[in-house]
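Thread: quick sanity check before group meeting

JM: Hey all, I'm pulling together slides for Thursday and realized we never actually wrote out the predicted structure for the chain we discussed last week. Dropping the sequence here so it's in one place. If anyone has concerns about the input, flag it before I start.
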Amino acid sequence: MVKRTFWTRLIAEAWSRRSVIWLSGVRRSGKTCLCQSLQDIEYFDCELPRIRGLLDDAESFLRSVQGLTIVLDEIHRLRNPSELLKIAADHFPTTRIIATGSSTLEASAKFRDTLTGRRETVWLTPMIHADYVDFGQSRMEKRFLFGGLPPFYLSSDVPEREYQDWIDSYWAKDIQELFRIERRHSFQRFFELLMAQSGGIFEASGFASPCEVSRTTINNYLATLEATFVVHIIRPFSTNKAVEITTAPKVYGFDTGFMCYYRGWHQLRGEDMGLLWEHYVLNEIQGRLQLRNVQYWRDKRGHEIDFIIARRGLAPIAIECKWSYRDFDPRNVKIFRQRYPEGATYVVASDIDRPVDRHFYGIHVSFVDLNTLIKKLKR
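JM (edit): ok, ran it. Output follows.
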C-alpha cells in the first residue's frame, strides 16, 4: 500500500491539536487507502450493517476502543454520527479518530452538531505534486489528461468507463444519501456542462434551459456540488464596485481528468496546457495550504488576474498562471496594481527552474515555480 507522505504528515499535525479529525474529499480521492496506510489503526467501515449496529451505542463502543487510533469510514451512514464524535472529543480524548466523508460536515442533515472547536479538518484533494514521488510516477501531461484521482492516474489507458462509473456512484452514495435532489438527468447534465466549461464565468440562467430546470434549482445544484468538493466557486475580489466585477463567480471542476473527458480531449494540444495548468495550480494551493477561499479579479473592461489570495488585514496577493513564462503579459497586473498597489505579485509557470524577479511599469513581479509559490504563500 502506498504511503502518501504529505497527507500522513498533515494528519499527524492535525492530531497534535485535536483527537478527532474530519477527513473529507471527493469519492475515490483515496481517503480509505490513506487511512488504512496509517500505523496501528482499527478500521471500521460504516457502510456495513454489522458495524453500524456496533456503533449504535456510542458510549459503549468508545469505551471498547479507548486509547486506540480508529477510522470511521463513511461515517454519515450512522444514525447520529455527530453525537458519537462529540462524545469522543469530550469524554475520550485519548482515542484518536479519523472520520471520513465526501462532503463538508455542514452539508449533511445528519450532522446536527458540526463539532466546531472539537475537531480538525483535513481536505484530501486530487493528487498534488508530492504524491508523484509516493506513486513512483511523475508525468505532468498524464496528470492533466487522466486526472488526479489515484486509480484514474495509475491507469495504463485513459479510464473513460471509470468516469461514468464515478458519476453513478456519486449520485447513488453522495447525492441520494445526503441531499434531497430529484431529476438525475438534469443534475447530471449540469455536472457535465460545468466540467466542460470549467474555469469560466458562471451565470445560472445559461444552464437553466439545457438542464430543463429553474434558475433557483441550478443555484441549489451548484451549492450541492460545492459542498461535496466537486466544483470550486472562485468569487471575485473587489473593493471598488464601480469598475470591478463583484457578483459573477468563476466555477472550476475538481479534476482535470473529468474536464478533459467532458470536453472530448483524448490527446492534449499545446493550446490546452494553459487552462489545465491553471486548474492544477488551484489544486496545489487548495491541497497544500488547505485553503478554499481563493478569489479572482476582473474589471468591467476585461482585465483579469487568475487568483487573488486576500487574507484579513493583509494586502492582496496576485497570482498569474502561465504554462510558459514567455506568455506573460504585464498589462493586467499593471491595471490591478494601480488600484491595489500593496501586495506581492507572482507569475507561476511550468518552465521556471529558479525564481526570477523583474519589474514592469514600476511593479515588482516574481516569476516562480509551483513549489516556490506554495512556500511564499505559507508565510
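AS: nice. DSSP finds 16 helices and 14 strands in the chain. The first helix runs from residue 5 to 15.
JM: adding both to the slides.
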